[in-house]
Amino acid sequence: MNLFSSLFLALAILAPGESAAEAPPRAAAFLEAIRAGDPDVTLQFVRKEFDPEDLKRMPAEPRARRLAGVGREHPGLAFIRVIQESPRQLRFLARDANNRYVEIALELSPESHGILGVDLAPADESTGKPVDAKASDAEAAAAARAWIDELAGKDQFSGSVLVARDGKPFFEGAWGMADREKKIANRPDTSYNLASIGKIFTQVAIAQLAAKGKLALTDTISKHLPDLPVPSSDKITIQQLVTHSSGMGDIFGEKYFQAPASSLKRLSDYVPFFANVPLQFEPGSGNSYSNAGYVVLGLIVEKVSGKEFHEYVRENIFVPAGMKDSGPYEPQVAVANRAIGYTLRGPGGPGAPQPVTANLPARNSSAGGSRSTAPDLLRFDQALRADRLLPRAWTDWIFSNRPGARAKNPGEAAGRSGALAIAGGSPGVSTAMDMNLDTGTTIIVLTNMDPQVSERVLSRIRQWLPKGQSIVGSRWSIVQGRACST
Q1: Domain 25-123 falls in which CATH fold?
Q2: Would residue 306 be called left, alpha or beta, if left means φ above 0 and alpha means ψ between -120 and 50 degrees?
Q3: What is the DSSP code (8-state) at residue 220?
Q4: pLDDT tens digits, one per residue of 215-271
Q5: What gap in Å lies between CA 186 and CA 202, rounded to an integer?
Q6: Which CATH number describes the domain made up of 193-403?
Q7: Residue 407, by phi and psi: left (phi above 0), alpha (psi -120 to 50) or beta?
């Protein structure tokens, strides 16, 4: 597939106060397509540049209308700089004619290289630029608080943040509203939808059962779920499901959006969304984010343990870790101090924040969507580090995907080193967490806003940590879900 049209040449676009920078061809093509705010123009772009298989999940027409709405909301968007460029994502900063900065993320298919989704987040002129590390944790906390106060004042941040070293918080706070209609403010211990951060609980459950000898990472789907209608189920291993290398795809598609949300109560209710769907590639030969794969992992947990998935997680993860305010995300069940998600991505395009209350499943799956608080996630972090949830070798697997693997670090007597970052997002939900084994530092950002907000805040805090203590080389093991992205 020819991804770049000769009509869309790379542009060198300037904004006041910025140095000249050449836009990557895909960024230039995207900005050119949406600049007029014309759905006919954006439709041509979507049909040409988006992944053909993903267009089956969400047709081109509604995507084109939303992108045209972005162009009208942000007239004259001009490229400023690349923030991150990889085979999976292109993130760049743009500025509109009204002097508003926007961070744009294009999610890319590793197979077709077509666009899978588009995420936008408010930004400022410093987004994507390195910041100077502070001399102490206290100075880093002061800088973070001042910056987040500014973001919240512009309605660009709503959520809870916690930063700790060796399990002791040195920065904690909450901003924005948990419920705008009832004027209920977020608190440091407000409960949020975790989106794909919930996958870490599924991975820990698999490791616990493996440590007890009840399953092996080399086991295939068919060994535990012989009747599950998944192609090549006799070849796909548990390890491949965990690492998104099974070839399975998503659960979000036409069937999902047509299903009554109230009907999604058990993991088995999600099976029709991927049953008998051809694999994207031969198991083990590629890598592609798979919510379906994590639903299968949850079904394996149920089969092997003899317990319903959420019951297993509660008994074996939440209770041992002391996570008293965590559980499944059930929209219709009253939960005190729970944040409502708000999105700018309504059917009419960008506009005033709208509550995300429709189309939420009756109960989340093992692919994500549990609810938790920042203090509870710190308890999870500490329980994991202390090997209270898993034997040491399997804790190492969580951080490396290799049982017993430990990064060499002569300065660490215990021999454990490295960092792990996990994130999740969907409309009205943006969450991120970073755990560093070398420094004992934990950063948790939970928001009830659209994706990219939490990653932006976490990244800036990470850079502010004192020199020699910053979290570098973190392995983003669970990439953001794209449940409903454009």
Answers
A1: Nuclear Transport Factor 2; Chain: A, (3.10.450)
A2: left
A3: B
A4: 999 999 999 999 999 999 999 999 999 999 999 999 988 889 889 999 999 999 999
A5: 27
A6: 3.40.710.10
A7: beta
